[in-house]
Input
Amino acid sequence: MEVFKKAANKILSLFQSTAFNVVVLFLLTISITIISYGRVKPEIPATYPEIIPHLKGEFRFAGDQVSIRVSDTLLSRRMLVFAYDEEGNQFLIAKPIYEKTITITKDDEADFKVFISAGGNIEGHEVLKGEGDSQPQTNFYRLLLDAQEKGYKYGVQECFYPMEQRCADVCPVKDTSLFTFHVFEDGRIGPTIETWRCPRSGICIHYCPQGIIRNVAERIIKEGKGPGADEDGVFEEQR
Ligand code: SF4
Output
């Protein structure tokens, strides 16, 4: 009995000791900090991504320049203009958009070339304007005129693939990318997203430098389902 009494007194004096109270207070503070951080840490919206509808370009060939009126501007206010050659390869130039207009002048040189197979697959690319510029320049204005005269494809393209592919790089699904890049019927290259495998991290939406990946939920709230979308809000070219 005396032993129990002594043990009880020891425990009581431990609870009353300053060191013990300091330790308890410290642990309590740490726990509250961890729980609060979990609650207030920045959230990446958990929603499905989708590619914005393609911006149309209205080409006007006049004098020694081509002006292209685009149907809207992008977050980055720059865009690619492309023209195909007789071998079916795509040449591109990056251009700023001023007041919804892009201007191609007669001295503009192509920035890069994408090799496309007869079956319409991307086979590689080449940077045409590089440091040192040892390569011969490829006049983009001439290519664009040829494309228009000879009926090759030309147009505007929002996506900067294959020069960069940040959406695919940041996507947490790494086994086979959710993002696959295609050559569309009109000659553009851009991504399609396998939405059904998407973990909805929202990271691609934040990282696309062109701002062409958006949040489905935001679009539905702002615009309803949007023109061209089916009853699930999915656009034709994303199906
Ligand atoms: S991040 Fe945007 S611009 Fe870059 S490859 Fe993906 S869709 Fe294209």
About this structure: The mean pLDDT is 83. The chain has three domains: 2-40, 57-157, 164-238. Residues 159-161, 164-167, 191, 208-210, 212-213 surround iron/sulfur cluster (CB under 6 Å).
